[in-house]
Amino acid sequence: MADEQLQAQVAYEDLQDLQREFDEVETEIMRQQAKLTATLYERRAATVAQIPRFWPLVLEQAPPDIDQYIQPSDSALLLLSLTSISVSRFELDVAPQSLAISFTFAPNEYFTNDVLQKKFWYRKAMDGWSGLVSEPVRIDWKKGKDLTGGLLDLVIKAWEQDRGKVSGSLSAEQKSLSKKIENTGMGGASFFAWFGFVGRRISAEESVEANKIEAKAVADHKAGIQTEGSGHDHGDQEDEDLALEMSLEIFPDGDDLAVAFAEDLWPGALGYFSSAQEQDAMSDFDMESDDEAPDLAEKLDDSESDTVAPPLKKHRSQ
Amino acid sequence: MADEQLQAQVAYEDLQDLQREFDEVETEIMRQQAKLTATLYERRAATVAQIPRFWPLVLEQAPPDIDQYIQPSDSALLLLSLTSISVSRFELDVAPQSLAISFTFAPNEYFTNDVLQKKFWYRKAMDGWSGLVSEPVRIDWKKGKDLTGGLLDLVIKAWEQDRGKVSGSLSAEQKSLSKKIENTGMGGASFFAWFGFVGRRISAEESVEANKIEAKAVADHKAGIQTEGSGHDHGDQEDEDLALEMSLEIFPDGDDLAVAFAEDLWPGALGYFSSAQEQDAMSDFDMESDDEAPDLAEKLDDSESDTVAPPLKKHRSQ
Question: Is the ipTM of this complex over 0.85?
Answer without folding.
Answer: no
